[in-house]
Give the backbone structure.
Amino acid sequence: MNSTDGRLVWLGMAVRDRLGLGDRSLATEHGIEAAYAAHGPELFRFASRSLGDTQLAEEAVQETFVRAWRNAQRFDEDLGSLRTWLFAIVRNVVIDLARARAVRPRAAGGDSIEVAVVESDIDRLAVVWQVEEALLRIRPEHRTALVEVHTRDRPYDDVAAELGVPVGTIKSRVYYGLRALRLALEELGWEQP
């Protein structure tokens, strides 16, 4: 172990002790290993599909876990799952790598239009995951009203009849559900693409 490794281990232990985190925290070697074992392959597949380059995907996953380790104190499982947090990080890393690749000359063919499409796909996928996570945080009756009216594009009257409540109740549930959803998304750190 060189001096840099020793300082990193000490720093990780200091962060863990300061935060009162156990061995499963991201501030420890065991915590990072557990997170990588649980989510590394999925993050790699996402990065590989997004970037179209396995070497860049490996770099993206490595940078994701470095950022997660450096910012372990910022993760709050009350706000979202570790998976969602790691995917938000890898999404940002993939965008950074795609942008960097766009300004560098390419070794083999390709054009900048492809990068723009990849970013759009990445944004859509990240938004889907964040909306799913946020929907789990709102009241079930609000979630049902939102899904039926907005996702399934059903009229208020049909939803009200099916649920056995007045139309005004469905409209209220949609209104307050959207407000609750917006707050949940903000708590997850969602930024409108």
Q: What stands out?
A: The radius of gyration is 21 Å.
